[in-house]
Amino acid sequence: MKPKTTKVETTRKKKKGFLLRLYIAGQTPRSLAALVNLKRICSEHLDGKKYRLEVIDLVKHPQLAHEDEILAIPTLVRSLPVPIRKIIGDLSNLERVLVGLDPDGALQRGKLARV
Predict the structure, then answer these.
(1) Which of 6, 38, 70, 83 gets the most CB atoms within 10 Å of its CB?
(2) How far apart are the C-alpha atoms of 84 and 12, rounded to whole Å?
(3) Domains in the chain, CATH or no CATH each
(4) Residue 109 has pLDDT above 90, yes or no
């Protein structure tokens, strides 16, 4: 007999790559820095990998902070692949961001190979 899989498990199996949500608060310097840094990191280190980036402005949509339990801003949430990871700050510390995005180190190994 085949084991039953729930809809959530089936959906997660189909999704490959990264699901990233950046929570910001309007056009503050730290929010803008986080967005610029994240776009740079994605283009340099996730190039060729599948990812989706959602930018959520909590000034416009404060109710969305509850979903990912956001306590500080800016915060980057990596929802996929599981487990969920959160990185707080302007994302200027590249090593910290890469470890948060990819704890097994594949992104860092790719970065070192390019140097």
Answers:
(1) 38
(2) 13
(3) 17-114 (3.40.30.10)
(4) no
- Do strands 18-24 and 75-80 pair parallel, antiparallel, or not at all (unpaired)? antiparallel
Tell whether the model's pLDDT for residue 4 goes beyond 80.
no
Distance CA 80, CA 20 (A): 7
Contact by Cβ (8 Å): 65, 24: no
Backbone angles phi, psi at 56, to 5 degrees: -115, 115
| Residue in the structure block whose two tokens are 């961001």 | 97
Mean pLDDT of 73-93: 95
Note the Cα 100 to chain centre separation in Å. 8
How big is the chain, counted in residues? 115
Structure tokens at 26: 């309007």
- The pTM (predicted TM-score) of the whole model is 0.77
User: 55 in helix, strand or coil?
Assistant: strand
Q: Are strands 18-24 and 85-88 parallel, antiparallel or unpaired?
A: unpaired
Give me the DSSP letters along 28-47: -HHHHHHHHHHHHHHHHHST
